[in-house]
Amino acid sequence: MELETIIGLEIHAQLSTKTKLFCSCDNDAFGAPPNTRVCPVCMGFPGMLPVLNDEALQKGVRGAAALGCEIQAFSKFDRKNYFYPDLPTGYQISQFDQPVSLDGEVSVDFEGEIKKFRINRVHIENDAGKLSHNQSGTYCDYNRAGTPLVEIVTEPDLRSPEEARMLAQEIQKILRSVGTSDADMEKGMMRFDASISLRPKGEDKLYPRTEIKNLNSFSALFKALKFEQKKQIKLWGENNAPTGETTVGWMDEKEETKLLRDKESAMDYRYFPEPDLPPVTFDSDQIKAIEADLPELPLTKKQRYVEKLGLTEAEALKLAESPELYDFFESACEHFSGKPKKVANSFLSIVLAETDWEKSQITPEGLSQTLELQEAGKISSTAAKEIILKIMKEGGSAEDIMDNLGLEQKSDTGEIEAWVDQVMAENQNVVEDIKNGKDKGIQFLMGQVMKLSRGSANPGVVMGVLKTKIN
């Protein structure tokens, strides 16, 4: 029997706001001492009332629109009741039956094929705190409690762990591109819950699923789904297919899942409308303004780089990855117009090869000015790299660095002839080999002249002088 894998995702992304969702506590608690970014509101003290953060609402709605969702004219918040030690109120403020957006779609370039995956909904909710476990006990840090999140719920359209990983990566790019979330997984700003089930190929029925909770990396998402897929294939092969829905956790160290509990239903959470928050409303003009203000999305940008700028698929994919990359690239292209391929090559091979390039002193103008000097024949490619690295480390003008280091390319025939004569005199055997038809030797002589001139000799002039003198 041929089986088909059915996967759906729930993606939680922290909104990039200054304060939390319902109070004025600092939303940037990463690395802060435990329980220092809290107040009576996010700690759930009696009598405290939530006030909706307008920036969080706007950024959440903007992210939903970028994922192709329909922004709802009316939505509301609900209480999702459950007990957990790091949830100080005993309930989460989320959105149940009337979320802020519905019915989206995300396109993904999957192995050269554009695939579309449906988004069921995007809603806004607050996060819980964080538990840390060690041999002496469990510690609870409430700094993250009340952090604003968007939860992105996909339809069960994914058919492999590979597709799930690619969709998650594309959604991360989209959220970053519109400023909704930094989605930094190392800081816990993006997490996944994944549901997986199998069914005989050709059937439309959905069988009981297993939900994998709190996956904190693309690697964990992929490996956990692969593990569950393999496990369920074995169960089906033994005529022991799952009969009930379960929730499991992923253990990175062992690279396997562990049963946590039976899957909860909506009834278990006893949802009811949040009495302390008014509904959220948007009129049609506001919705149109949000949609019209969206920037070019990463997949569209990548396709434009390939089709209009002549970049390779790999170059375009990398540059369209984040606003830091494509903003720098496009700005450099504006200053060095007509040569996007050359800008991309230098940016990717020199600038991005350096660790923490964003913290260096390189600017789009500095890169483009260096390339202009190279294009004008004033410096060689080797000198251009040296200048770019110098700017990254110390800043300054490309032309000043060229002058200070004596990197300007020399085309004076007399000076170049002197270098060529010296190199030929020191390598008579190579000269004879060239005269006898071994043409590769001329590249060696060329390299020796460039070395002698410290890269300042014009390669075209050097080659011309070498050929003339040898012949």
Describe the structure.
39% of the residues lie in helices and 21% in strands. With 471 residues, it is an alpha+beta fold. The protein has three domains: 284 residues, no CATH class; 110 residues; 58 residues, Arc Repressor Mutant, subunit A (Orthogonal Bundle). It has a nine-stranded mixed sheet. The protein has a three-stranded antiparallel sheet with strand order 5-4-15, with no helix packed on it. A two-stranded antiparallel sheet has the order 3-16. Helix 6 packs antiparallel against helix 7, helix 8 packs across helix 10 and helix 13 crosses helix 16. The radius of gyration is 30 Å and the shape is elongated.
Reconstruct the topology from this structure.
Layout lengths: L2 E12 L39 H13 L3 E2 L2 E2 L2 E4 L9 E4 L6 E10 L2 E14 L3 E5 L2 E5 L6 E7 L6 H17 L12 E11 L9 E6 L2 H20 L8 E6 L4 E7 L3 H4 L2 E2 L6 E2 L2 H9 L5 H10 L5 H7 L3 H13 L4 H12 L12 H12 L5 H14 L3 H8 L7 H14 L1 H8 L5 H12 L6 H12 L1
Parallel strand pairs: 12-13
Antiparallel strand pairs: 1-10, 1-11, 2-6, 3-16, 4-5, 4-15, 6-7, 7-10, 8-9, 11-12, 13-14
Helix pairs in contact: 2-3, 6-7, 8-9, 8-10, 10-11, 13-15, 13-16, 14-15, 15-16
Q: What average pLDDT do the residues reach?
A: 93
What is the CA-atom radius of gyration, in angstroms?
30 Å
Instruction: Please state the structural category.
Output: alpha+beta
Q: How many DSSP E strands?
A: 16
Low-confidence runs of at least 5 consecutive residues: none
The description of the largest β-sheet is: 9 strands, mixed
**Strand composition percent:** 15-25%
- Helix count, DSSP H or I runs of 4 or more residues: 16
Broad shape: elongated
How many distinct folded domains? 3
What is the share of helical residues? 25-40%
Distance between the termini: 75 Å
